[in-house]
Structures are given as structure tokens and as C-alpha cells.
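Hey L., structure's done. Input below.
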Amino acid sequence: MQWAECVCGVQAFQPDLESSDRYLQLRYEDFLQQRDEEYKRILAFLDLALPAGLLEKLPLVHKGNFGKWKAKLSREELAAISPVIEPLNTSLGYE
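Output:
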């Protein structure tokens, strides 16, 4: 599963990355809940000023997308991927 491989790849380097000023962890769910704050955080990380009116021009994030992947999978598909994704979700702070 590509998502799991990508997450595991990042986690392997995470201790080194977290001590670096070249790493910023982003979570899609944070964008859903606080889009403007997340954009500001990214700009601050990049050491860029927030231009006047920029937030109004940026695309909106649809809050209805949260957890949508679960609704698209069958019970059998969820059961098949759960052993892979549940430990990763826990390590990432998801329930």
C-alpha cells in the first residue's frame, strides 16, 4: 500500500528531520480545521511574509473530505487494510 510505504519512509528519517530546520510536518486534517493558520505556518516555515489579501485568493479546502476514504471502502476492504494502517494511524496520533 503506497500510503503506508510513504509514511514508513518518512518515519525512518523523522528523528533526523525533526531536528532540522528543513522539515515541516503537515496534516491534511489540520487544513480542514484551520486552513488559514496552516497556510501562515507554511509561509513562516519558508520565512516568507504573508502578502495582503493572499488568504482570500487561496483555494478553500472542503471539510466534507475528512474521512471520506472510509466511506468509499467496503467492510471487507477496511478489514484487509486495517492491520497495515491502524499501527501507522496510532503512531501519527489518529484514532
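The mean pLDDT is 85. The two ends are 20 Å apart (CA to CA).

-- N.
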